[in-house]
Amino acid sequence: MHKSMYIIFLLIVAGISCKNDDPTAPRLDYDSEIVVFGLFMITEKENVQQKTIRLEQSYKVTDPLPQSQKERAIKDAVVFVETNDKRIQFEYLFDSTYLDKAGTLKLVPGELYKLDITLTNGHKITSEFIMPDRPKILRPNASAPAAAYQPLTVSWEEARFAHRYEIAIDDDFGEFQLATFSASDHEELYPFLFATPNEYTLKVASLDQNYYDYLRSRSNRDPISHINGAIGVFGAIAYDKERFLALVQ
Questions:
Q1: Domain 34-130's class?
Q2: Mind listing the pLDDT tens digit for each residue in 211-229?
Q3: Which of the 8 DSSP states describes residue 197?
Q4: Which of 52, 179, 189, 205 has the maximum number of C-beta atoms within 10 A of its C-beta?
């Protein structure tokens, strides 16, 4: 057979093979999962703490999209949080949210907090974290303006039990926003070169390992998980906040 005719013959065979080999359809019959978002927070204000646990059922892409968050809520779970010798029940109140209604649970830096959830079918969900202490911002602050169009040095007192820190800066109008992680007690923020003269809010937060891993991997296909029996996070954050001015110098 002539060489050119042989090549044409191979192309025809290849084309027939491709037509008969249908592409594999994606699997859409996966089981729905339990989604937990538990975040315990020590704020910049003394004695102001937030403790929230959200519990929902995920849905299949082939199912009709739920019209409201209430349709995904799991309302009949038994939810406990343990620390030291206390075992405190969180009650369902609204929109997938379970709260320590009586305010019995206190967040103490260095203490271990354990999550224990039991669904009506007996399914168990567990996790735990160590509460980090709150950092204290040293600069910039209200009495020490920063320089606009210059890198910004942010420093703070090291917080006990912090796995990582998150630094976030924004203005009142959303024209400048910056967020980054740090493993030390200071950070040089070069993107502040693009910050105009304005008033800004700075937040420095200490993160436990669970919440840090959740934040840095939540957009990945294989997020880092520290929760058993569900997907999501049970973690902690403690933060300080300052307002400061950026001026042309």
A1: mainly beta
A2: 999 999 876 667 788 999 9
A3: S
A4: 205
Please name which of 130, 122, 115, 132 lies closest in space to residue 38, comparing C-alpha atoms.
115
Nearest alpha-carbon partner for 107 in 37, 39, 49: 49
Nearest to 117 by CA among 41, 55, 57: 55
Q: Which of 160, 139, 166, 159 is nearest to 39 (CA)?
A: 166
Residues 6 or more apart from 136 whose CB is under 8 A from it?
Answer: 156, 157, 159, 240
| Per-residue pLDDT, 47 | 86
Task: Tell me the pLDDT tens digit for each residue of 35-48.
Answer: 999 999 999 998 89
* Ramachandran assignment for 9, one of left (phi > 0), alpha (psi -120 to 50 degrees), beta (any other): alpha
Strands 152-157 and 146-147: unpaired
Q: CA nearest 57: which of 32, 38, 31, 91?
A: 32
Tokens found for residue 139: 């600069």
Residue 236 to residue 50: CA distance in whole angstroms: 10
Interatomic CA distance for residues 125 and 40, integer angstroms: 17
Burial of 48 (0-12, 13-18, 19+ CB in 10 A): exposed
Structure tokens at 114: 């354990």
**pLDDT computed for residue 26 by the predictor:** 47
Beta strands 49-57; 198-207: pairing state: unpaired
Q: How confident is the model at residue 66 (pLDDT cuts 50, 70, 90)?
A: low
